[in-house]
Specification:
The complex is a heterodimer of chains A (117) and B (110). Chain A has 117 residues and is mainly β. Chain A is built from no helices and eleven strands. In chain A, the strands form two sheets. In chain A, strands 2, 4, 5, 6, 9, 10 and 11 form a seven-stranded mixed β-sheet that branches. In chain A, strands 1-3-8-7 form a four-stranded antiparallel β-sheet, with no helix packed on it. By secondary structure, chain B is mainly beta. In chain B, the strands form two sheets. In chain B, strands 2, 4, 5, 9, 10 and 11 form a six-stranded mixed β-sheet that branches. A five-stranded antiparallel β-sheet of chain B has the order 1-3-8-7-6, with no helix packed on it. Chain B starts with a strand and ends with a strand. The chains are: A mainly beta (117), B mainly beta (110). At the A-B interface, strand 5, strand 9 and strand 10 of A face strand 5, strand 9 and strand 10 of B.
Chain lengths: 117, 110
């Protein structure tokens, strides 16, 4: 099956610094990538939808200036958490949708655990 | 708005059958997904229902009733490795995204 990778898998940073998370589709082209956030014992909350070559669409309540998303190619999307604070500590998961396919072909990455001290 | 509800936690015994329910209220409903998520890992796709009825896939089956806004995931012959969270998610016509339910943590005991 299709593989989506995320890097790093785990990151610890100081409050006020910025952190970049990469999401790559390894063996397929993904026109759309999704970024989710998951707090402990809670479900996945969609943060934004990233389309290759265009601006990301953010969900209500998600600050686009704080969570910068870049989808420069059909295999790579990045999420940058700027000026991170302890409340940004969470599990960030990306997913990628196969080009021309429906949501049932959405493949999830392994997630990135962010801890902001 | 949208509302997707699942029980928070369920427990069951190895070898048994368990049914995890999901109710939803949303406009423009298109289809319903079930995912399994082990702690600290990404969700993995289990099933996708668009039409009413039961879809069986090995030990797992998923049911959908569009008129009732109701779905369930049925797990048979439970194994210890089935201990995980089970997430239902809804897709809507014209929207290329999923909205996830609250998730159900299933604990399978010996």
């Amino acid at each position: 099956g299709a593989v989506v990778s995320q890097h790093p898998s785990r990151v610890i940073c100081k409050s006020g610094t910025s952190v970049k998370i990469e999401c790559r589709s390894l063996d397929f082209q993904a026109t759309t990538m999704f970024w989710y956030r998951q707090f402990p014992k809670q479900s996945l909350m969609l943060m934004a939808t990233s389309n290759e070559g265009s601006k990301a669409t953010y969900e209500q309540g998600v600050e686009k200036d704080k969570f910068l998303i870049n989808h420069a190619s059909l295999t790579l999307s990045t999420l940058t958490v700027t000026s991170a604070h302890p409340e940004d500590s969470s599990f960030y998961i990306c997913s990628a949708r196969l080009r021309g396919q429906g949501l049932e072909t959405q493949y999830f990455g392994p997630g990135t655990r962010l801890l902001v001290l | 708005g949208q509302n997707i509800d699942q029980p928070t936690e369920m427990t069951a015994t190895e070898g048994a059958i368990v049914q995890i329910n999901c109710t939803y209220q949303t406009s423009g409903f298109n289809g319903l997904f079930w995912y399994q998520q082990h702690a600290g890992e990404a969700p993995t796709f289990l099933s996708y229902n668009v039409l009413d009825g039961l879809e069986e896939k090995g030990r797992f089956s998923s049911f959908l009733s569009r008129s009732k806004g109701y779905s369930y995931l049925l797990l048979k012959e439970l194994q210890m490795k089935d201990s995980a969270s089970y997430l239902c998610a809804v897709s809507r016509l014209g929207f290329q995204k999923l909205v996830f339910g609250t998730g159900t943590r299933l604990l399978v005991s010996p």
